[in-house]
Design goal:
Radius of gyration: 22 Å
Number of strands: 10
Oligomer: single chain
Distance between the termini: 36 Å
CATH architecture of the largest domain: 4-Layer Sandwich
CATH superfamily of the largest domain: PPM-type phosphatase domain
Structural class: alpha+beta
Shape: globular
């Protein structure tokens, strides 16, 4: 779940369910249902066996009637709210996850398996060759799919872009937004020069294509062959620059994506010397809890990096995961986790 960082301010309140958020959600879903109904009606005359189309039309009409009656999004079995991510993925669903029929459970399992396969295919290739750099990452969903975004993009001019992000929510809806971010950034890379310009353009597209109750925190950077790094940060967890036993954070440069459409994003520039690293992560790391409900936190992460920062990226990543495991001491993990380490080698 995204928890933005813009110099100490948080935006967790945006994630909390509210009547206004549900109203916005339902308005978007109503539009989607009406569009679906129109397409089904258009297709109906040319279908040899119209029974299935008629059944879908009845399902759409029933969902619209539930909206009119104020019962949309309410489980027909327990009368509690249906999970928002399921409604966004399928506005025709009638029951919450706890009350699916056996057939619905099997269908959901197949859909989640397919979603996992698709999302796994969007991750950067392990061992991607970078000119003078080494990059490793750990990507771990809290459930079948993740709302974290992780990417490495080699450009034709010899530079490489790195992206780590986190969208609001969890589950299928969050994974759909993650895939949307992936498509947005990949489509813009060739036509943009700086990470700030990339974030500015991506924000406009994200605002236009996403419900206003959703946002994404993203850190995006460019590394060059001489150690130069340019970073734009849209409200994400602050990257950490690890060098000679010291750790320094790289400040944020703007609001999360999806908050204000006309936002211009700046960048920060720094130079990494040989053996120095950048550590990027989502709040699934720093907000992990132990049995006493204490957060892992940036201070503990920084302390570990100060002690272990001279390790090679793969070993440093393993040390970070081991330290997190010791801290949690068996406590359940509740959020997606992504860590990326980029080190200058020459």
């Amino acid at each position: 779940m995204a928890s933005s960082n813009t110099g100490g301010e948080t935006m967790d309140q945006v994630v909390q369910p509210s009547k206004s958020a549900n109203t916005i959600r339902d308005a978007a879903l109503r539009k989607q249902l009406l569009t679906r109904r129109q397409r089904l009606e258009t297709a109906l005359p040319g279908v040899p066996n119209p029974e299935n189309v008629m059944a879908l039309l009845r399902e759409v009409d029933a969902a619209l009637e539930r909206m009119e009656a104020g019962m949309f999004g309410i489980c027909e079995t327990c009368h509690e709210d249906i999970e928002s991510d399921r409604l966004l993925a399928d506005p025709l669903c009638r029951n919450c996850l706890d009350h699916l029929s056996p057939a619905e459970q099997r269908a959901l399992e197949r859909d989640l398996d397919l979603a996992f396969q698709v999302q796994s295919g969007l991750l950067p290739r392990p061992g991607l060759a970078l000119d003078g750099w080494t990059a490793v990452y750990h990507y771990e969903p809290a459930g079948p799919v993740s709302g974290d975004y992780c990417d490495l993009i080699a450009r034709e001019n010899g530079s490489t872009l790195f992206v780590v992000g986190d969208v609001t929510g969890k589950g299928v809806a969050a994974s759909m937004l993650m895939a949307q971010l992936y498509a947005i950034f990949r489509s813009l890379v060739a036509s943009t020069q700086s990470p700030g310009e990339l974030l500015t353009k991506a924000n406009r597209i994200f605002c236009e294509g996403t419900l206003s109750s959703y946002f994404a925190t993203v850190v995006c950077g460019r590394i060059g062959e001489r150690g130069e790094v340019e970073i734009g940060n849209a409200g994400h967890c602050l990257p950490l620059h690890v060098r000679s036993g010291a750790v320094a954070s790289v400040p944020s440069t703007g609001l999360p994506l999806g908050i204000v459409r006309e936002t211009e994003y700046g960048t920060r520039k720094l130079t990494l010397e040989r053996g120095e690293s950048l550590v990027l992560y989502t709040d699934g790391l720093t907000e992990s809890l132990n049995g006493s409900r204490e957060q892992y936190g940036v201070p503990r992460l920084s302390g570990m990096l100060e002690q272990q920062g001279s390790l090679a990226p793969k070993e440093l990543l393993a040390a970070a995961l081991e330290d997190l495991k010791r801290f949690r001491s068996g406590a359940a993990r509740t959020d997606d986790l992504t860590i990326m380490i980029i080190r200058r080698e020459r």
